[in-house]
Amino acid sequence: MLAEVEGRLQVLGESTRSRHFKELREGLGHKDLRVAVFGEFNRGKSTLINALVGYEVLPRGLVPTTGQVVTVAYGSKNQVRVRFLNGSEQVCSFKEINSFVCLSQEGIAREDIDEVEVTANSRFLRSGLTLIDTPGLNDRDAQTFRARNAIAKADLVLLILDARTLLTQLERQMSIDWLSRDLGKAVVPIVNFMNCVDESEHDDVRVRLRHWCESHLPKELSRPWFEVNALGALRHVLGLPGSTPPKDDYTELRSQLQKMSTNTRRGLQRRSRFRQLLVSLRETQSWNRRLLAKLREDAARVEQERNALIHDLNEHRRRFEANASISRDRACVLARKVLDKGIHFLVNSAFKGESKTRLEANAQEWYTTILQQAIRRIEKKAYDYLIKLAGDKLRRPSPLTIEERMIIRSRIEVDTLEPISPSGEAYGLGAGIGATIGTFIAPGVGTLLGAGLGAWMTYLIGTKEPDYAAAYSDKAREHWDSDSQTVINILQQQYDARIQELNQEFDQRLAELSRQRPQGEQEMHERINLDITLAKATEYIQSELGC
User: Fold this and answer.
1) Torsion angles phi and psi, residue 408, rounded to 5
2) Judging by DSSP bridges, how do beta strands 226-228 and 186-192 pair with one another?
3) If 480 and its partner were Cys, which of 28, 343, 422, 443 is the partner (CB 3.0–4.6 Å)?
4) Which pLDDT score, from 0 to 100, does residue 433 have?
5) What is the mean pLDDT of each run of 10 residues along the chain (547 residues)?
6) Whole-angstrom Cα distance, residue 5 to residue 85?
């Protein structure tokens, strides 16, 4: 179950949290009793560890010096192993540890170090104990973060207090809220510097401690708290001149930690480690649910925006479909007007008054040129109608290609025309006039000769050159009607095709919007699965703890 939590966190890219659960899971079977020494700076944490181990393995002083988490475990060799964030390692002696774990003059810890591990050939540690020295609080957030991660791996926390400033607000908050409730740790107060408090005040200090411990902390060892003189104990362990055996609780504390029964140790380990897992599971679930709520909120907003876009697009499409037919008809009406103006200009301006020779040479070219000009104008105006129809929500439609599709095969040719002769009425009228004149000159024969002469004169005067301009105009109109209809047909086909293209774009956009999913949908799905897994893991841990 816990491995599944790690895997789901890894899928979400939460490698740090995944690694945290992996360490907790693997730590369930760790045999050593891991004891974290914790507290505000200058409380004597490093001094107490040195005294318990029997060596000065850690730097100590009157100012806060430790900026790294240092693990002190049993080893056949007395040495320090420093692991760096880049994966490299360095081994050094106890005397060289200061350069790795001590703060700079500005109070800043080195940021290139991942872990510092001390091994000491100590009888105290050989019994299966691992001590963890943590950076003092009230320094920097980075150091507090390191301390928190170290304590998460501990089975028991020795909270170092200063009898002279007993139970500051931060210490009360740390022990009750943070260590016990938030981290689920077993906490044992260790009161240092009792020797620096006037003996007349000892009872007051103890009464205050007893009341506080009974109210807030369960008794994890034989005593609710221990009073020690860490520096005095260290001096005695090191055999320094003038040192005397401790007369406080140091010896009892050391003995209880070292000689804890197997059942007591296992019970403490199991309870502390499962409580830490439970706290971490609940904390992770709370964090995950906050993110999940935010993802759901974002998804609802995106869905609302998507629905609004779909609505707007459908409304635009409705208006588009209503206007498409009107726009098409307008384009066709315009085309007919342009074509009518073209043929009118051709026959009344281009052909009018032209000779047979010029018409034979130029009529076809004039016809083609004017028709092409009309087609280009029709294309431009019709395309303007399409762009207006598309509006600002659709891409620009592809241009019309009527001119490319229009193959002008018309041949405006006129055969040789016969001269235009007078009509029968003109002949009759001429003959009558001639006969009348002949009668006055010579009745009888004169009348006949006058009639014939009048008819002949009428023929000579009435016969004239054929009207080639009119003939070419008639031919041009004949072809123009056919070509105009072809232009209109092509215009209608292409206009309909462009409308269909724009309709397809509506379909495509609507389909894309329908398929669109919130960007965090996959993450939301994974976090829902993580929440389910965390709930199952929490239920399992609670059953193990008997909650």
Assistant:
1) -90, 105
2) parallel
3) 343
4) 57
5) 92 91 87 89 88 86 67 92 88 83 66 86 92 71 64 88 86 78 84 91 92 86 91 92 89 91 87 88 94 92 90 90 93 96 95 91 93 95 93 87 84 70 53 56 54 52 74 93 94 94 91 81 92 94 84
6) 25
Contact call for residues 88 and 57 (beta carbons, < 8 A):
no
Long-range contacts of 383-391 (CB under 8 A, 24+ apart): 385/327, 385/330, 385/331, 386/327, 386/495, 386/498, 386/499, 386/502, 388/327, 389/320, 389/323, 389/324, 389/327, 389/499, 389/502, 390/320, 390/502, 391/316, 391/320
Report how far residue 5's alpha carbon sits from residue 533's, in angstroms, rounded to the nearest whole number.
Answer: 6
Measured in whole angstroms, the distance separating CA 284 from the mean position of its chain's CA atoms is 23
Residue 380's nearest CA partner among 339, 327, 335, 340 is 335
DSSP letter at 464?
B
Backbone angles phi, psi at 141, to 5 degrees: -60, -40
The Cα–Cα gap between 72 and 134 comes to 11
Rounded Cα distance between 425 and 357, Å, is 33
Opening angle at CA 386, ends 384 and 392, nearest 5: 95
CA-CA distance, 407 to 45, in Å (whole number)?
Answer: 100
**Can you give the pLDDT at residue 167?**
83
Are the beta carbons of 134 and 158 closer than 8 angstroms? no
Model-level pTM? 0.63
3-state secondary structure of 217: coil
Q: Distance between CA atoms of 170 and 138, rounded to whole angstroms? A: 9
pLDDT at 459: 47
Distance of CA 65 to the CA centre of its chain: 44
Q: At what angle do helices 356-390 and 262-345 cross, to 10 degrees?
A: 150
How deeply is 455 buried, as exposed, middle or buried, from its count of CB atoms within 10 A (0-12, 13-18, 19+)?
Answer: buried
Distance CA 12, CA 6 (A): 10
Q: Identify the CATH homologous superfamily for domain 31-260.
A: P-loop containing nucleotide triphosphate hydrolases (3.40.50.300)
Helix (H, G, I), strand (E, B) or coil at 496: helix
Domain boundaries, the chain: 31-260, 306-527
Alpha-carbon distance 382 to 338, whole Å?
Answer: 12
CB 426 within 8 A of CB 458: yes
The DSSP result for 310-335, as a single string, is HHHHHHHHHHHHHHHHHHHHHHHHHH
Rounded distance, CA 406 to CA 462, Å? 45
Ramachandran assignment for 73, one of left (phi > 0), alpha (psi -120 to 50 degrees), beta (any other): beta
Cα–Cα distance, 451 to 439 (Å, whole number): 9
* Distance of alpha carbon 496 from the chain centroid: 40
Nearest 10 degrees: CA dihedral of 419, 422, 423, 424? -120
Q: Partners of 118 in the beta sheet?
A: 72, 80
DSSP type of residue 218:
-
